[in-house]
Specification:
Blueprint: H1 2-13, H2 20-33, E1 38-44, H3 49-61, E2 67-71, H4 77-81, E3 93-94, H5 113-131, E4 135-139, E5 143-145, H6 150-155, H7 157-161, E6 164-168, E7 174-181, H8 185-200, H9 209-219, E8 230-232, H10 241-246, E9 259-261
Helix pairs in contact: 1-8, 5-8, 8-9
Length: about 270
């Protein structure tokens, strides 16, 4: 019912929700690339291709190949399909929006309707893939992988039991740029709450993916008495850029890191 309500409001809000044409293009590629039921969807447009290539090179070095690029424009896949020197993984990129473009001018400035429309795609695809039974890792393009994190997620007792694992933003809460969700009813309820919260703030300056994520983690109601079980990842496992480059070595061990989220940087 909630999904139908989201679709019904899409025309009024100038949103672009997922449809059968989009999912029919993405689902076969995901099925071919998933590993042990886990997939990493990556979202990019042409302007972010340099970041995307850097991320893919880092994943290739640690032999992680269960990624799929969901292109947000029709120019992103061409430079990816060439392979650009990847040694381990073959390219996997799909543009599912040809019939319903996300932007009209090819540009989406911050806090515009077109920018918000693009932001919404990530949690919508996450929920869709969870509904197909996959565990899904959302990873921003300014992340560099140092080690494969999936063995950690499976072996650590607290992480293995959680519905959702989220990167820490230090004293600033949670970061939506690196989070892992399992296909549980509680995780689906979390994604539903998150999407509804974003929709409720669609035309408002309070529309902010990361703030909405925090509200969803804290306020998602139980499903048949079962609460959402989420876990904030240790800062040393996935440090943000501020921690990685600015904090004293004694504060935490860089040797413990699985990935670095290169945010909090200027210049």
């Amino acid at each position: 019912a909630a999904t139908n309500a989201l679709k019904n409001r899409s025309a009024t809000l100038a949103m672009v929700t997922l449809d059968e044409t989009m999912t029919s293009l993405v689902d076969p590629l995901v099925a071919a690339r998933a590993r042990d039921g886990v997939v990493v969807p990556l979202f990019s447009n042409l302007g972010f291709v340099p970041f995307l290539k850097n991320l893919l090179c880092s994943m290739d070095r640690v032999r992680v190949s269960n990624w799929v690029v969901i292109a947000l424009d029709n120019s992103t896949c061409a430079p990816i399909r060439g392979g650009f020197g990847l040694a381990y993984a073959s390219p996997a990129c799909v543009f599912p929006y040809a019939h319903r473009p996300l932007t009209t001018q090819g540009v989406a400035s911050y806090r515009t309707v077109e920018f918000n429309r693009m932001v919404m795609q990530r949690p919508m695809w996450m929920r869709h893939l969870l509904s197909r039974g996959y565990s899904v890792l959302q990873c921003d393009l300014d992340v560099v992988w140092l080690r494969d994190p999936f063995p950690l997620f499976a072996a650590h007792p607290h992480l293995a039991a959680a519905d959702v694992l989220v990167q820490s933003e230090g004293g600033h809460g949670y970061n939506a740029g690196f989070y892992f969700a399992r296909p549980t009813r509680a995780a689906d309820a979390f994604m539903e709450f998150w999407l509804e919260d974003l929709v409720s703030r669609w035309g408002d300056r309070s529309f902010e993916e990361q703030h909405s994520l925090a509200r969803a983690l804290h306020r998602t109601p139980p499903v048949n008495g079962t609460k959402l079980l989420y876990y904030k990842l240790n800062d040393s496992w996935v440090p943000n850029g501020k921690m990685w480059w600015s904090m004293a070595p004694a504060a935490y061990s860089k040797e413990a890191a699985y990935a670095v989220h290169c945010n909090w940087n200027k210049g």
